């Protein structure tokens, strides 16, 4: 089968199409014929091996897993003997492993039957970014409208966060670059701040910071005395730890203050997927599998708005 592979760490130039063996399923796995696969920062970390501390899991000198990708949508090709929830021919979406390929394996607990109203491309855009956004938004304790600030609102997690916050009645101030303002308004933001020309102002019940690396002191100054700060990403951090230093600082600080600082680690499960099927999927651009390197260059340069997915031909063998 065809797959996107990389034998070394690096930028998008290390990605290329290769022929690799078709996976076989274990008793507790599902084999999916992939129709669309999500592009996100997780794949970028796998490709670059950054931050360096991540190589403890990814492989010290070279990637253990040569095929990137988690999010997928497609058709069940085979099921292990212990799998009872899915059958060959079912249309599914969720998280698997090595999804930038014509076939990928997944655990049943991380898949859901694809609703008919979602295309494969829309469904593949949902799992990782949508579930992360879901967990970035803390539950509302009352029916009152919260003031929510979303930093990095033009990307995958950010766009889902804006959509979800508006769907539950929050007032959303979104922060993005100039090129993404119109799209972020379409996602439902009540107010948009262009970070290239405007300072961050206001007082917020909840701040969701995605992919930035602003100091905690800056963010806490924008947060109400008992507000919550949710952190995700931090790609502009140091080469060794990336944004982990800021998350660790948040964990160390939050027991001693009234504000709540958090950095959830999210793995999309069935409940998450089910909660996301009825919202608008912020699908932006699509690329064929053969142009995965182009998609990653656009992601790394910050030029992707919403979610981008890779697509496979329907007649995959």
UniProtKB/TrEMBL annotation:
Domain Enoyl reductase (ER): 10-310
One Pfam family in the UniProt entry: ADH_N
InterPro entries from the UniProt entry: ADH-like_N, Chloroplast_QOR, ER, GroES-like_sf, NAD(P)-bd_dom_sf
Entry-linked Gene3D superfamilies: Medium-chain alcohol dehydrogenases, catalytic domain, NAD(P)-binding Rossmann-like Domain
Protein name: NADPH:quinone reductase-like Zn-dependent oxidoreductase
Molecular function via GO: oxidoreductase activity
